Amino acid sequence: MKRYFPILVFPILMCFIACRSGQNQIPKYEPVDKKVFDEIAAMDKTFFDAYNNCDLEKQASIYADNIEFFHDKGGLMQSKSELIEATKKNICGKVSRQLIEGSIEVYPINGYGAVEIGFHKFFNNQEPDAESKPSKFIIIWKNENGTWKIAKVVSLH
């Protein structure tokens, strides 16, 4: 019996491992609500077109008045005017953002809005040889009477 033990146990063990490995895989993202996904993807594009073209007025119109911007290196900013001023000083004419195609996930938040999660890259023309690595972002969008506003941002680099 000892001689046949490995022959009997090995297939059972392999079957067990194969069955368990499927339980830990991350499922492919599918939008929960395609309409909300499309609206947020369009707002992402609108906002970052304004960001890349230094349209500070457009950016300000998309930020909620009580914006909270969490940056892993810069900390928390809670002033819309200070955020716009920092963008004017540090971003305009220097930095551009590129969304990593296909990386956006959008999840509706009942009675509030939606959360957007994705990856993007930033390019600084002051450092043309610097490598731009994809970084994660999270944006909490608030729907105010049919108008989407950025309420919170978590920017990770």
TrEMBL record:
Alphabetized Pfam families for the sequence: DUF4440
Annotated ranges, domain DUF4440: 40-150
InterPro entries reported in the protein's UniProt record: DUF4440, NTF2-like_dom_sf
Signal peptide: none
Domain of life from the UniProt record: Bacteria
Protein's name in the database: Nuclear transport factor 2 family protein
Organism listed in the record: Flavobacterium silvaticum
